[in-house]
Amino acid sequence: MAQHLYADNSTSENEKIITETQGSLFITPDWLSLHGQFTDVVQYHPGFTAPYAGINSMGGSKSTKTTNDATLYFGLRILDGTELFFNPEIDQGYGLTDTVGMAGFPSGEAYKIGKGSPYYKVPRYFVRQTFNLGGETAKIEDDINQTAGNLSADNLIVTLGKFSVVDIFDTNIYAHDPKSDFLNWSILEGGAFDYAADSWGYTYGGAAELTKEWWAARVGVFALSTEPNTQTLDNGFHQYETVVELEERHKFFDQAGKFKVLVFANHANMGSYSDAIADMGNNAPSTASVRRYQTRTGLVLNAEQAINGNIGWFGRMSMNDGSKEAYDFTDINRSYSTGLVCDGKLWSRPDDKFGVAIVVNQLSSVAQQYFELGGAGILIGDAAHPGYASEDVFEAFYSAQIEKHTTVTLDYQFANNPAYNPARGPINILGLRFHAEF
């Protein structure tokens, strides 16, 4: 949502204090934070079996697409505990087949709206208020969207403005950031987490995070789009999302781990698949013709566990109400992902990273029927066709640091049954990512 959706960082605000800062090229006072980044992703797939195509099918001929974005991160601490942030950005490029054709789309750097020439936007501008509630105090270093300061072990952080829901919710240190680890949407997030976002992955809203000794609780309210999968956000919050996440932190054989439970509810005008099928007549079913105000709920279980000082494991399980159309993310009703990430200390390149993951995405039975009859969703729609299978993706990446602020990543994805259609694919996707950060 691109998946930019995608948040630029792999940790929530409290988790950032334990990550090593990249440092800034500028000498700035503690009350000011100034950083930047540039990311370029090239993806290629050779031709694959595609006996027919629909409105949202990935093209079967070989294809190469490129996306790039450049972001400045300005932060200003105006009072003790009060920070303002502003992230102007320039984007350009397209995802494969204009970012359709797979429910678990292969690039978290590809937006749902692509453009061939550079264009300007401001994905984030928000205020953060931190309340220190006691306990041991840790020093926070200047970093992206973070000014230098102190944070107590017990704290409350409130964020208001425009940002990404997954800047704060469903984070995972091993699988969350398309600029530094995996690229597939349904590996970066819980695939069935239909989080509020515009076509670039950002929205208006607020969140509160309470952190105590070994646990944390987060709640948030966010604006959905005015209609499913549109650019315009409902700033009046008639269409809105509520999110609650609970986290526990532990050590297993002296290795750090976390387990999170997230529940969400989308309240908006949306269509049910069964109503669309009943109303289809001689045409393909369309949820757009049967929308009414309803609630759609979902759940994400999210775990991360260090195995030793070099290797970490992650896993997610997510599901949602499969009777209704996806609203802002992608067409997935159940998703199961797991993987391993290790750093290059094992081969004397401590700043390199290698990861492997698999994800299985599924539809509910009524959603299967809707798409087999020729219905279209956010990212999929292969015209009327028989047959259904889970969409299975394997991804592996190697990220090499070429100097302190720059990495180059090779990425490979194998997608079986793209868009849940066993008649199309499999697709082999090769990726090259260049990322610079200061």
Characteristic terms for this protein:
globular; mainly beta; 48% strand; 3 helices; 16 strands; 4% helix; 438 residues; 16-stranded antiparallel barrel; Porin; disordered N terminus
Task: Find the structural class using helix and strand composition.
Answer: mainly beta
Note the beta-strand portion.
Answer: over 45%
Total of DSSP H or I helical runs spanning 4+ residues: 3
CATH architecture: Beta Barrel
What string gives the helices and strands in order? EEEEEHEEEEHEEEEHEEE
And the CATH topology? Porin
Strand order, sheet with most strands = 1-2-3-4-5-6-7-8-9-10-11-12-13-14-15-16
Q: Looking at the structure, what is the overall shape?
A: globular
Distance between the termini: 24 Å
**Largest sheet, strands/sense/barrel:** 16 strands, antiparallel, barrel
What is the share of helical residues? under 10%
CATH level-1 class: Mainly Beta
Query: Roughly how many Å is the radius of gyration?
Result: 21 Å
Give average pLDDT, whole number: 94
Q: How many DSSP E strands?
A: 16
Poorly predicted runs are 2-10, 16-23
Name the CATH homologous superfamily: Porin
Query: How many structural domains can be distinguished in the coordinates?
Result: 1
